[in-house]
Amino acid sequence: MFRKLMKVAVVAAVVAVSGSALAAGGKKPNMTPREVSGVVNINTASTRELEMLPGVGKHTASLIVAHREKTPFKAPNEILKVKGVGNGIYRKIKQHLTISGATTLSASKADPAAPSGASNTAPAARTEKTVPPPTARIN
After folding, report:
1. Is the dihedral of CA 80, 82, 84, 89 positive or negative?
2. pLDDT at residue number 44
3. How far apart are CA 95 and CA 92, in angstroms?
4. For 33, which of 13, 25, 92, 133 is 20 to 30 Å away at the CA?
């Protein structure tokens, strides 16, 4: 009995450690809420300019630059050839992509009407789930 209990404890510890390691090392896309306006020339933009696009982080921006150094983009939808840019991200950024002209992309906070700093609204109250008591079993 003690051996089984120890095995369960070891397995639980391994799962807990590996789960926290995965959570700490997981990569997050650029999810900063903001409004983006203008266009970015994917053939000339810097990685910093590419990072302003919704869903594009440092790694994906560097992959876009590496791709265009080998083969310049002939159409905006060719950005789908870059690893890390799928249909979901492309739908978010396609209106901001161009292959010629200057980059005019600018980003601002998502809600420019909101006052900076603390909000005047109180956070929503947390509701607890109620679990019904277990029913009595008759043997």
Report:
1. negative
2. 95
3. 8
4. 25
- The whole-angstrom separation of Cα 134 and Cα 36 is 52
Q: Is residue 56 within 8 Å of residue 32, measured between CB atoms?
A: no
Does the pLDDT of residue 125 top 90, yes or no? no
**Phi, psi at 136, each rounded to 5°:** -70, 135
Q: What is the Cα–Cα distance from 74 to 78, expressed in whole angstroms? A: 7
Q: If you search the block for the tokens 């739908």, which residue do you land on?
A: 91
Nearest to 40, CA basis, from 51, 32, 29? 51
Cβ contact 96:106 at 8 Å: no
The pLDDT value recorded for residue 32 is 53
Other C-beta atoms within 10 Å of 6: how many? 10
Backbone angles phi, psi at 98, to 5 degrees: -145, 160
- pLDDT tens track for 75-118: 999 999 999 999 999 999 999 999 999 999 888 876 545 544 44
pTM above 0.85, yes or no: no
